[in-house]
Specification:
It contains 13 helices and 20 strands. The protein is of the alpha+beta class. It has three domains: 56 residues, no CATH class; 246 residues, Aldehyde oxidase/xanthine dehydrogenase, molybdopterin binding domain (Aldehyde Oxidoreductase, domain 4, 2-Layer Sandwich), CATH 3.30.365; 145 residues, Aldehyde Oxidoreductase, domain 4, CATH 3.30.365. Strands 7-18-19-20 form a four-stranded mixed β-sheet, sandwiched between helices. Strands 10-9-8-17 form a four-stranded mixed β-sheet. A three-stranded mixed β-sheet has the order 3-4-5, covered by helices on one side. The radius of gyration is 27 Å and the shape is globular. The N and C termini lie far apart (66 Å). The mean pLDDT is 95.
Length: 585
């Protein structure tokens, strides 16, 4: 099977189970994918193509969907409704939170059942909430099926909670940044709503918040817009996310040396633009003192040749596969140092790898090039020791658990990445158009492995979050058919819609069991965009925006319903400002 998918293992696993075929009789190959974003996890159309191939006399069959077919039949993000209420003490302390989520799964749920699970256990966000009740339901409807999308339920739960926080702040007369500071979790002490005690090295949410408010200029009023019928406002939101995965979501890595000490790294990590594979190759090159071009990963993922990894989803790839690779490196180094120790007559703990050479610490002139060891060392008389070096490493979480079906308690994830988004925007009171002037993203990543890739993820996630927040919407008729199955009527963000200024800041609070202390970033950068925009408008003019997308028509209607006085005043200002130019033809 050749398929455009995020992972080879789940395609083979589900195919084998559903069709009753042994795993080793199914080979799945995935080349460069393009975008993934969660919609290409699990199983797609592969089983149908396999059955069509059998019907066609076992000849090759290829399925390609048109844009209209993709919109009308393939799985999309779930529909989402939430009903929430919260209680706070007078000093701003969170006292209680009750929320009910209903997810529209369409005709077939696919991953949406698991999204519903993640929505539920992420409902408390970054905050200590002593009393919390969460109900998350996934229901079938007469629409196209749904599946995962970047964020996997966390954007939905934070969309609700972060607006609750701002509305409580206004009612209590407390600054939105201060009410967050009061209620933020304390790593090492706080427990999540599933009863998990946060690691003491989980991150520094207070520093995230402080950096965020400093960079957006919180507390400093925005400049007045040149057009008096517009207003400018600032809003912020905080977020946290960990991988949504089962406790046995393993990863493995194999690295083998070639005669010139170049390395083939065998991994199944998906390669769909997020850059994880590059960072993993950097780790290998760094540890062996080799230039990056001497590390190779085959661009085709292949169940017959690649080492196993559960999936490349949930912002887990660098963490889980990185740990597996570091263990494979340790295994290979042990083999290398065992041989070098005998040749150099030096204990292994006194050897080091520098610039592709094994050296005696403090005596760099006593050395052996790696290429003289990795295929076995040969003495001048022809005697040989060692042999081809092949390193093997695995990752398996040791502290995650299933959630108790009755209480919802357990440890569902392997790390928590804390972050925040702040925006300064301009709102046209006459048209409902929102223009983001400045956006700030702050994330505590533990350790930034590749600064350029992290910056690209931040900007890309912010753009995607803006598009989903302000524009993207699949529309259905009364029968459940998609009525806008193209990019003409399904509006995506354009260059003209992007924030004028983007500021990205990264905090490094290392997680001790992560690769160099790193945590994942992939999904995080879009989670806080929508609530930050909604909060900016609410804080400025008191208009509540309860649905997505916040497109001009919806915002215009909300303005007319909730603040007709503002709209009337804006019309007066526009009328005075307007210049009429007569053109004679």
């Amino acid at each position: 099977i050749w398929t455009s998918w995020q992972n080879v293992a789940p395609v083979r696993q589900i195919m084998a189970l559903s069709l009753g075929i042994p795993h080793n009789k199914i080979i799945v190959r995935i080349p460069y994918v393009g975008g993934g974003f969660g919609g290409k996890a699990g199983l797609g159309w592969e089983a149908l193509v396999a059955i069509l191939s059998k019907a066609a006399g076992h000849r090759p069959v290829k399925l390609v969907l048109s844009r209209k077919e993709q919109f009308s039949t393939a799985a999309v993000r779930e529909g989402f409704h939430a009903f929430a209420k919260a209680g706070f003490k007078k000093d701003g302390t969170f006292n209680a939170y009750s929320v009910r989520f209903i997810l529209d799964a369409g005709a077939y749920a696919d991953y949406t059942v698991n999204v519903g699970r993640a929505v539920g256990y992420s409902a408390d966000g970054c905050y200590e909430i002593p009393n919390i009740n969460v109900e998350s339901l996934t229901v079938y409807t007469n629409k196209i099926p749904t599946t995962a999308l970047r964020g996997f339920g966390y954007p939905e739960s934070h969309w609700v909670l972060e607006q609750i926080i701002d509305r409580a702040a206004k009612k209590l007369g407390i600054d939105p940044s201060e009410i967050r500071r009061i209620n933020l979790v304390k790593p090492g002490h706080s427990h999540t709503c599933t009863g998990e005690r946060l690691r003491e090295d989980a991150g520094d949410p207070q520093k995230v918040l402080k950096t965020l408010v400093d960079e957006i200029g919180w507390g400093k009023p925005s400049e007045n817009p040149p057009e008096p019928w517009k207003v400018r406002a600032k809003g912020l939101s905080l977020f946290v996310k960990g991988p949504a995965q089962p406790p046995n979501a393993a990863a493995s890595a194999i690295l083998k040396f070639n005669e010139d000490a170049s390395i083939d790294l065998l991994i199944a990590t998906g390669n769909f633009g997020q850059g994880t594979v590059t960072a993993l190759m950097q780790i290998v090159a760094e540890e062996f003192g080799l230039p990056l071009e001497k590390v190779r990963v085959d661009y085709v993922r292949d169940t017959h040749k690649s080492a196993y990894t559960w999936q490349t989803v949930g912002s887990r790839g660098l963490f889980t596969d990185g740990i597996a690779i570091l263990k494979a490196i340790e295994d290979a180094k042990n083999q290398i140092f065992t041989v070098a120790s005998e040749v150099l007559r030096c204990p292994k703990d006194q050897l080091e790898l520098v610039d592709g050479e094994v050296r005696v610490k403090g005596k760099p002139w006593e050395k052996i090039p790696l290429q003289d060891i990795v295929m076995g060392y040969t003495y001048p008389n022809g005697n040989s020791i060692g042999g081809p070096v092949i390193g093997r490493g695995v990752f398996m979480s040791t502290h995650t658990t299933y959630l108790d079906p009755d209480t919802g308690q357990g440890n569902p994830t392997i790390f928590h990445t804390f972050g925040g988004t702040a925006v300064e925007l301009e709102l046209d009171l006459l048209t409902g158009e929102i223009n983001i002037l400045k956006a700030v993203e702050v994330l505590d990543l533990g350790k930034v492995i590749n600064p350029l890739l992290v910056k690209q993820q931040t900007h890309g996630g912010l753009i995607m979050g803006t598009s989903i927040s302000l524009y993207e919407e699949i529309k259905f008729d009364e029968r459940g058919w998609v009525v806008n199955p193209n990019f003409t009527s399904y509006y995506l963000v354009r260059i003209k819609d992007l924030p004028r200024e983007v500021v990205a800041r990264y905090i490094e609070t290392p997680q001790l069991d992560g690769p160099y202390g790193a945590r994942g970033i992939g999904e995080l950068t879009m989670i806080g965009v929508a609530p930050a925009i909604a909060n900016a408008i609410y804080n400025s003019i008191g208009v509540k925006l309860d649905r997505l997308p916040m497109n001009p028509e919806y915002v215009w209607r909300a303005l007319r319903e909730q603040r007709p006085d503002l709209v009337e005043e804006a019309w007066k200002r526009f009328s005075k400002y307007e210049k009429i130019v007569e053109v004679t033809i």
